[in-house]
Amino acid sequence: MKKIFIANWKMQLAPTEAEKLAQSFVHTFKDTKNEVVVCPDFLSLAAVSKIFKSSDLSLGAQDASAFERGAYTGEVSAFDLSSLGVKYVIIGHSERRTCMEESDKLISGKIKAVSAEKLIPVLCVGENATERKQGKAASVIRGQLKGAFKSLPAKNLRSVVIAYEPIWAIGTGVNCDPLIATRMKTIIKDWCERAGLKKTAILYGGSVKTDNATSFLGKAGYDGLLIGGASLYVDSFKNIVNAKSK
Ligand code: PGA
Q1: Closest residue (by CA) to atom 7 of ligand 1?
Q2: In contact, 63 and 33? CB cutoff 8 Å
Q3: Among 93, 169, 192, 202, which residue's CB has the most CB atoms within a 10 Å radius?
Q4: Which CATH superfamily is domain 4-241 in?
């Protein structure tokens, strides 16, 4: 299976900056053997979609509405994302769970909406520092997985990506010990197998840098990485993508 590298640009770039960075990504990842996915914000999606046409890159979105196209002010439908050429949609990122108070119910609805348009949901799961300290990490993750697939049986999903993103490692520079990452990957994999999820790729995310990328892809056995901060610079992102073969 190709390794998947997802650049999550969050709300960090103005449209002109996103277009410029997208152009350098096209140039840098020409003929890439990996699945390289870029998730700009909604405002830049249409322009980046044009830039990515006939490139070797895939387009992702950072979120999608749980509702079908209609009278939902401020929402963006999976249908419209699909028509722009979006292939992946990040769902339930911890920043949305925390800052926007997204519930398991809403996340579950979003997975359903996205899957109905044949887009691939990238479900983010992860425990916070207190939950880890209290020994609750595994149960938190299992709870998030169960909640996310509540409204549609996991076995009906064609393809899903799950990103393990410990909240205490996101944007903090704090490294997740590869041993912890390995254990969490096994927990997620076991849950997916029991739920009947057929094609599931499991990614790691949280302060991924060139010097730690290999440990998650190597021994810990992740199928790819979800990268925030380091994806805003083409060179650091390129080094992460290339690090896996070392
Ligand atoms: P980070 O973000 O790489 O900046 O820690 C990862 C993420 O939030 O997906």
Answers
A1: 228
A2: no
A3: 93
A4: Aldolase class I (3.20.20.70)
